[in-house]
Design a protein that fits this description.
Blueprint (H helix, E strand, L loop, with lengths): L1 H5 L11 E3 L3 E7 L5 E3 L6 E8 H4 L4 E6 L5 H8 L6 E11 L6 H10 L3 E6 L16 E10 L5
Parallel strand pairs: 1-4, 5-6
Antiparallel strand pairs: 2-3, 2-4, 6-8, 7-8
C-alpha cells in the first residue's frame, strides 16, 4: 500500500493473498525477511488466502511480474491460455534440487503464448561440475524477460 501511495498510482487494486492456481488458501512457508513461498508438507507454514492468477488475466495486462519462489511453473501453466492478454512478462524461474527441472516446459508455454524471451542467470554457480550449490533447497534461479515483437 505504501508503494502505491508513494507513487500516487491510480486504478490499482491490491490483494493481500498468495498467487496460486486456485482461490482459497494455501500453506505458506515464512522465511523471515529474506522471502517466503508456497510449500506443501513443511512444518513451518501458515495458511494464507490465495488467488488464482488466471482469473486476474481476463483483461489486457501491460506488465506481469511473477516472482513467487518456486511456484511459478504451476501458476504459469495454469495461466497458459490467458498469457495472450499480457504484453510484457517477467518470471523469476527456480528449480528445486529434489524435483525435476521444468525450464523447457516453461519456455514452451511462453513461446506458445507468442513471446520471445531473454534469459539471465540470477545465481551463478562458480564451479557447477565440482559443487552443486543450493539456496533454500533451490539449485537454479533464472530471470526470464518475455516480450512481444514490435513492428520496426
Amino acid at each position: 500500500m505504501k508503494n502505491v501511495a508513494s507513487f500516487d498510482l491510480r486504478n490499482v487494486e491490491l490483494h493481500q493473498a498468495a498467487v496460486w492456481t486456485e482461490n482459497g488458501s494455501v500453506a505458506f512457508m515464512q522465511e523471515g525477511g529474506f522471502s517466503g513461498r508456497v510449500q506443501a508438507g513443511s512444518l513451518q507454514t501458515v495458511s494464507v488466502p490465495s488467488l488464482r492468477l488466471r482469473d486476474q488475466l481476463a483483461d489486457s495486462v501491460d506488465f506481469l511480474k511473477v516472482d513467487i519462489e518456486g511456484a511459478e511453473f504451476d501458476v504459469i501453466r495454469d495461466c497458459a491460455d490467458r498469457l495472450s492478454n499480457v504484453d510484457r512478462l517477467f518470471i523469476e524461474y527456480h528449480s528445486e534440487a529434489d524435483k525435476p527441472q521444468r525450464l523447457d516446459e516453461m519456455l514452451a508455454i511462453i513461446r506458445q503464448a507468442g513471446f520471445r524471451y531473454q534469459i539471465q542467470e540470477a545465481n551463478v554457480a562458480r564451479k557447477p561440475f565440482l559443487a552443486r550449490q543450493t539456496m533454500m533447497g533451490m539449485d537454479l534461479q533464472l530471470n526470464l524477460f518475455c516480450f512481444r515483437d514490435t513492428p520496426a
